[in-house]
Amino acid sequence: MLLIKNGHLIDPASGVDAPMDLLIVQGKVLQIAKPNQIKAEDDVKVIDASGMIVAPGFVDVHVHFRDPGLTYKEDIQTGAAAAAAGGYTTVVCMANTKPPIDSVETFKEVWEREQKLPIHVLQAANVTMGMKGQELTDMDALKATGAVGFTDDGVPIADEKLMVSALQKCKELDVPISLHEEDPALMISPGVNKGKVSDALGLGGAPEEAEYVLVARDVMLNQKIGAKLDIQHISSKTTVEILRQAKAHGICVYGEVTPQHLAATEDLVLEKGALARVNPPLRTEADRMALIKGLSDGTIDMIATDHAPHSAEEKSEPIASAPSGMIGLETALGLVWTYVVKPQLASPKTVIAALTVNPANLYQIPAGKVQENASADLVIFDPNEEWTVPETFASKATNSPFIGWKLSGKVKYTICNGEIVYQSLG
Ligand code: DOR
Asked: What angle do CA 47, 354, 231 make, to 5 degrees?
């Protein structure tokens, strides 16, 4: 039994944005009531949440836990620990593992292990066999085995005909298809924006048109199909505008943005080198501001981290050969609070919706809400506490370009199924 007292509950799903106490019994939220109205037994454990925000546990529909096959970077246990430390109680793992998750056999093996973790770890499966973009996976069987969505994240799907078939199949199965949009034909070198920084470093760079041309294609291909098309890690202002227009025309499309694209620009590459290399790349201040605007006006639906662990050895290679990606679960709240909410560019409610109910709804996950008699999956955070991003993480990896950054907004407790799965010691 747990009583959370004196906190400020923000639950975008129900519209509650007010001081509330919560009583948790046997893994569920038994009661939500105005302050000091809950009568609990004497032996109840009390969390004093004075000055803190209580919200649904965060939901991240875009993480790489590298399991199976790449567990020197991360595994499902350390990934889940990093998620809990970041305030997340539900995550969806991407499928670019080794082997990739393109068969029921591979899916089942990791899925069974994921059921035993302290938070809800869900699994996506591949759109195409071997992520080669040539032949669809057995999506019927993979969905029946538990796949919550389909993605070849990490690798764009170039073939239009295959894309049409994939969209049609995902429509039929009523599952999201989540796409990494960087047209290989337009890429010079991935991971750094094509512009002043790629020029300064003598790299070809990843032009923004590589992203928005493919997004425009897939949005238009989906116009008549109406699948739940999820554009992953949007980085370019033009992509935001394409989604805005598509939504205005009634086309079914959803957008994800990462905390790193909301908080940083290509300049970070000059400072942090390969640690700031990511696909799609950090771009310009105009892109960053357009992403924030898209989030605040509902064009972008979800904040998803693209938590992408790599080893220190891999990331110490020269920028042209180091792998792209950065970890993100443990810095997500701090980055978004510091660079979006504190400067009042979007409201706490909008940001929390993008971290909770919006991704849960798209993926049809029973999460992202605070409801009586539902599973007690919660985060408690201090919106004002300042902290410096440390050099070590709950994640197995340390590839964050934000180490040393001073952020506001600190996760204090993460509660999943009524159990405290993370408590900040600081
Ligand atoms: O930079 C990236 N790294 N972008 C992706 O989409 C995939 C990820 C990875 O798997 O490392």
From this structure: 145
- The alpha carbon of 327 and the centre of ligand 1 are apart by a number of angstroms equal to 10
CA atoms within 13 A on the CB side of 77: 2
Catalytic residue annotation? 306
179-194: string of b/e by CB count within 10 Å (b at 16+)? Answer: bbbbbeebbeebbbbb
The yes-or-no verdict on residue 426 having pLDDT over 80 is no
DSSP, res 5: E
Q: What is the pLDDT of residues 301-341, one digit of tens each?
A: 999 999 999 999 999 999 999 999 999 999 999 999 999 99
- Which residue, by CA, sits nearest to atom 3 of ligand 1? 325
Tokens of residue 354, six digits = 């993008």
What is the greatest pairwise CA distance in the chain? 67
How sure is the predictor about 347, in pLDDT bands with cuts at 50, 70 and 90?
A: very high
Q: Which residue has a Cα nearest atom 5 of ligand 1?
A: 154
Percent of the chain at pLDDT exceeding 90: 98
Q: Indicate which residue's Cα is closest to atom 2 of ligand 1.
A: 325
H-helix or E-strand spanning residue 255: strand 253-257
**323 preceded by a cis bond (ω within 30 of 0):** no
The pTM assigned to this predicted structure is 0.98
Question: What is the distance in A from the centroid of ligand 1 to the CA of 3?
Answer: 40
Least Cα distance to 121 among 416, 422, 358 occurs for 416
325 CA closest ligand 1 atom index:
1
Of 64, 97, 277, 310, the one to substitute when testing ligand 1's pocket (max ligand atoms within 8 A of C-beta) is: 64
pLDDT of residue 23: 98
Binding-site residues, ligand 1, Cβ < 6 A: 64, 96, 153-154, 180, 278-279, 306, 308, 323-325
* Predicted pLDDT of residue 425: 86
| CA of 278 relative to ligand 1 center, distance in Å | 7
